[in-house]
Amino acid sequence: MWKTILRRILIMIPEIIILSIIVFLLAKAMPGDPFTGSINPRAGVAQIHHLMEVNGLYDPWYQQYWNWVVHLFHGNLGESYQYNEPVTRIIGQRAVNTLWLSLFTVVLTYLIALPMGIYAGRHEGKLPDTVIRFYTYVTYCIPFFVILVLGIWIFGYVLGWFPTTGSVSPTANGTFATIGSRFYHMLLPGILGALFGTVNIVQYLRSEVVDAKSSDYVRTARAKGVPINDIYRHHIFRNSLLPIAAFAGYSITGLLNGAIFTESVFSYPGMGLLFVNSISYRDYTVITALVLLFGILNIFGTLLSDIILSIVDPRIRIE
Amino acid sequence: MSKSKKITLSAMAVLSAVALAAHPVSAKSTSGTVSFPSAYKNTSAASKSANNKSTLKVAEPNDSPFEGISDPVLASNAEDADVFAPGGLDTLFFNDKNYKIVNGGLANLKLDRKAKTATITIRKNAKWSNGMAVTAKDVEYAYEVIANPNTTSQQYSSDFATIEGMTAYHAGKAKTISGFTYPDGQNGKQVVIHFTKMSPSMKYAGNSFIWDSVEPYEYIKNVSIAKLASSSQVRKNPIFTGAYKLDKVVEGESTTWSPNKYYFGKKAKIKHIVISVVSSSNVDKAIQSKKYDFTSPNGVMHGTDYKELKNLKDYSVIGLPELGYDYFGFNVGHYDTKTQKNVMDKNSKMANRSLRQAMMYALNLDAVEKKFGYGVSWRANTLLPPVFSKYYNKSAKGYPLNIKKANELLDKAGYKKKGKWRVRPNGKPLTIYFGAMQGTSAQQAEYQDYLQQWHKIGLNVKLATGKEMEMNSFYDTLEKPKQSKIDVYAAAWSLSSEPTPTQIYGEDAPYNMGHFVSKENTKLMNEMNGSKAWTESYRVKVFKKWQAYMNKEAAYAPGSFSYTWAPVNHRVKGYNVSPSNNEFWSNLSLTSSKIK
Lengths: 319, 596
Hints:
- The complex is a heterodimer.
- Chain A contains 14 helices and no strands.
- By secondary structure, chain A is mainly alpha-helical.
- Chain A has a domain at 87-282: MetI-like (MetI-like fold, Orthogonal Bundle), CATH 1.10.3720.10.
- Chain A is globular and about 85 Å long.
- By secondary structure, chain B is α+β, with helices and mostly antiparallel strands.
- Chain B has two domains: 55-293 and 571-590, 3-Layer(aba) Sandwich (D-Maltodextrin-Binding Protein, domain 2); 322-564, Roll (Dipeptide-binding Protein, domain 3).
- In chain B, strands 12, 13, 16, 19, 20, 21 and 22 form a seven-stranded mixed β-sheet that branches. A five-stranded mixed β-sheet of chain B has the order 8-9-10-1-11.
- Chain B starts with 10 loop residues before the first helix and ends in a 6-residue tail after the last strand.
- Residues 1-33 of chain B have low confidence and may be disordered.
- At the A-B interface, α2, α6 and α13 of A face α1, β9, β10, α8 and α14 of B.
């Protein structure tokens, strides 16, 4: 097992190098540069050229790439052109916001979806199953953006139960109040995200449970006289988790991806908006850093998923 | 607002906003039906307890977190200017309603044409919000930061080269700028700037010769200029010269303010202000549920928001014509990189004036603005917005719909119909490519309407690249010295509060992206800031003449004007966005402790 993991990690090195070159080249291949369109009728074009030169943006790509890699090994991802700040700092800030919000959403999603999936599977074809399936389809059909705007309107503005903007109240002072305020600000986007993000888990789990119900080992257990609830808890649940476990790795590393719509509607500074904005701004340093980060996380996600799978299902353990 | 925005909203800021939501345009149809007041007159008395205990809540409508650069010298976007506005943006001068610099601000300005100097005298009680005195060095340091070879500032204007010693400093050949002298020492209150050339535009706020904000030299001198924008002195604990001091900034989200006891002017009345970013997707809902007193006076509010908010109880819409305009540009030449000058090409596709005029007459901009402007934007009649009340050429006709005239113009110029489409006078087929930036569905509809109108007069106009272009590709194409992908395009300019258009339409202006050059144009532009133009009435005359001339040539043609507007709650007193209200924030007070 450990050998496999080590081998996988070694393979990652060339993967990451190739990824970094592709990322770097694609970023540069986009039309424009960090200063295109930042036209200011008062300040001259000469200053823009000057800034391009100072930032080495006129150098050939391999030189720019090399400089970037050298800096990378010094833990320096460069300065953002848009924010005029070190990239590591910006990403650091946004990552914290995003991490907490995604973690909250994901935990909530599983808490809601797992019981629903099992319940629907267990009562296949009956009313609860129909209701749950209907619910997942409906939530799947409505664009999430609409849900967010509707949610913020009803619960934020009309009822006034939740804050409507930012990740923390501007007036929150002290550690405790700040943490409380942060949690309060995550509630509405988190709950909406969880309520409307259940479809995959519910559907996979449901169909697995339905399959498992009629399988031999369940029949045997039933014949032995094992109580039905125990069968569901110990036998069916564990086996049905397989496909979900396959996603778990991605879920964990995906925590940092951010949610563009949520961040935009709730004015929540997170990774999703940072990524989109950096692309439209041609903020190369931020784009390359983020894509590289997402890429590495994805590679790790695959590995993690495999490890989790092997824990859940000893049959596929690789030696 | 008094603080004529120093940061002319860069095109980037404007355009990215456009891409995300409806057109940031604005009020009043040509018949002049809608016109916003620039002040809200609240007749109730201000309440002391409300001022002391309640919080003034301001919404900054934006789809992404603000960048957090509090220093106007380094910031390059409008959001930062908005959320740090109560600090006064460290503005040096007060100005009147025509943006002319007047006495009474942090400093006074005196121009000496003979000696070619500008003398800036700081008032005696001028202090930073941490109690430090504002010094002569603070005035000069702004130029050092802007012109430093390692700066991140985008504000260096080519006109700064007229300051003695500036070129040497900018190139890194001199440690200081020799054109600055201090009659009573660097820590004194007077700075004299020595120019090689004087311009009448220097009399106006936002001109490109004299920078109009100060930098707290003592406070930031230990930070290298290259690292200034990321320093805590700029990000976390900035100091200001305005009516309010910053209490707290939550990065990208909000700023919190309280009165600055060291402010030289009228003392702030409201004890607590919070400015928060609110997504433009729901800012209308936020106002409807009375979460905010007003939206940032310079914030981007859309026509669709206006539709939702215009009749809202307890709120009034207050606004000012935008410092900017939408326009059409025609590609009539190229930029000679050797001589650094624009050159008109007589044989270029769009070189024929009648063709350009006809294309403008074919457009039904009145109807388009009426439908998609929701009352906050209207057809522009000239290339200078009405916010410059003195210079704006009210009587210019612009290009109202006139299909008949358009056809006549084309017929006369020899663009004969051959089958479905007109051909060039030399008989060759004519296909015109229209460059348009990606935007909202409303904008898409506008573009389609333009194409339809052009087809009506027999011109085969197609979208350049076959679809709307992403903003970066659009400007990347236009900024090329020579290009043939785009023949006509729709874009927008935001302006500084000094309206000289040389940087965008001048012969050597790289932003003259249609490359229109003529002797008359150059002459008029020179006259705008020539020696006669020190007499204001003459200058006004030249500006009006220039507007009429540009309309006639139609190399750049007016598209639309709009209002910069905000809904203001009726508990707010003293809200006034007139350019002459130099103390916007300290003039505000509250008449009730709850938002009405």
